[in-house]
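Please check our next protein.
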Amino acid sequence: MLAIAGISKFWLLSLFLMIQQSPIHAASVQNERMLNVFKNYLSMDTSYALLMNGKRGIGKTFFIKKSVIPAIKQISVRHDERKKYLPVYISLFGVKTIEDIYTTLAIEILPLLRGRKAKAGLSIAKLISRGLLNYNRMGDIDLYKKDFASIAKNTLETKDFVLIFDDLDRISSPLQIGEVIGFINSLVEHDNNKIIIIGDDDQFQNENNYTAVKEKTIGTIVEYATEMSDNFDLIISTKYKDSANIFYEYLKASKADIINHFHSTKTENLRTLIYFLEHFYTIFGELYIGLKLDKERSNNLGYTKMDTVLRFSIAISIEFKNGSINYKDPKGIDDMKTINLFMSRTSLSEIVKEYNSLGKSVPKRDSQRPYFQFFLSQYFDYNYNFYASIYDFITGGNSFSANVLISDLTKEFDDRIYIPSRQEEVFTKLSTQVVYNLSADEYVKLSDELLSFAKAAKYPLDRYISIQFYLQRFPEIKKYSIADITNELIEALRTHAGDFSYDEDLTDKFDPDIEREDSQYYIALYEVINQVNNGNQVIQVEQNRADLFYLFRDTPDQFYSIAKQLFDGPIFDHWSFPAFFTHFKSMPASEIPRFTRFLDKRYEAPIKNRLEYNFISNFFDELAKKTQVTEFKTLREVAERRLLELLHEIIEHSASGFI
């Protein structure tokens, strides 16, 4: 109910703030040029059809329906200026016989005759009566038959109509393209009708007899070529300007970002754009209310969140519609643990690539890399978060949940601490993606700040190679001494070694071009980075052991994740056994088999630590007292008995080492 109420408020507000303007019909010169071709065709005495040619999905149908058909209705019939042309749109998608086409024509034309003073002429009567023979669900057909009874002065003939046949390239077998063109040719030759055909000529170039029939039937070809930008303007104006003006204004303001993504991915299919807009319409409406936005954009953080959602929605829409992802297989773009690791390592790996390629041609990206890496680089410049509520909605897996999305956004953008730290801002501005937008003075100032922050240990370990590279990348502007920079960074790493967090994934090999004269400085810094990291590993492991009991008690998943890394060292040696056993007795029964499997795997080899052996022995003794039953009443008792048997085996296996 909350979601329904929210979206209702949004659209009411949108209507209230609506700005009335005349609709856009052919904003671009290109559209005007194409419209003029159609107008000229209708004003001439012709015995041929007109073909609008273009690839599938690029907007031909939309252009016909929104621009051409309205224009046709305003054009006088050539043989009788008292009348206006009547456009009749027919889709050939899926038709299998010529009789299907007759039937479809009948269905489309008959409603135009009902209620008119003019009667059906002989030519049109012949055309649609054949369709009626194939269609028995028209209602009271006798009412329509009366329209064929006489021919009056104001008779409607087929030449009063403009017959528009769309989806020529989507007919179904056994119908052949030559048959369709032949049917259209009969309308053109015998009745001098105005016929517009829409299709992708490339799809049927190899069809039998197509070329010969085409040359006989089609006299004018309009190559549909229009900018995505123009289609975007036309679509959002037609669909949203009057009914959802707030959404329309946001789309207008975001046009550059939207169009850039479609261009950069070479996505020309207008159906994909419409699919994105239709889904984002729902997302925007609920989020607008949930984030308490207003048209004046007074809530800057709220619009930052909305812009983030926009970019993610564009990416998912494009990739879903081109078949790269689906609801059941997101291809790893939802695996934030792996992606966060990749993004933290990307700084180093990209720096190595740029470092080694200075003065050389930049190598092409590896086509075999994981899909998520392509996805990030294509849409996000490695600044990314996954939103399951949007993904599920756009890929058809679930309805949209605004509450889930708002919760995710709140976690990502903390309203209280949203202002980024200065050190992060400096590092970002000097990154490989945006540094070229800086002036020389800005670069010098930011570089000095970067070095200052690095010497104060304000960055994680995995960024120090990047920092070293950033500071000597442009000697033409400021020439830092690579030797001095390296020594200062090494000194900072050693002085503040304890202030850095251990990075278990800091294992990438730094492999600079050894032929470069400065390669030894990078290698030297990398060695110190690893020394500091390895030293912190010992501290981290000890801290982990001290915290493991609390993880075991409060967050078992984290406990098992960390404990797996400690198979070669003690875990239970410093645990309070009374506290452990008290928790064990209240532990959910479903956790007992999991703990049993963990112990079974851990103690495949004999226990080596005396304190840990004592812990397991105490556990066995207390559990034996608890499980003194001859008849099981619960499955928990069964699980505990199996655990007891395992503990007995572990003790038997390890006892000889402590006798």
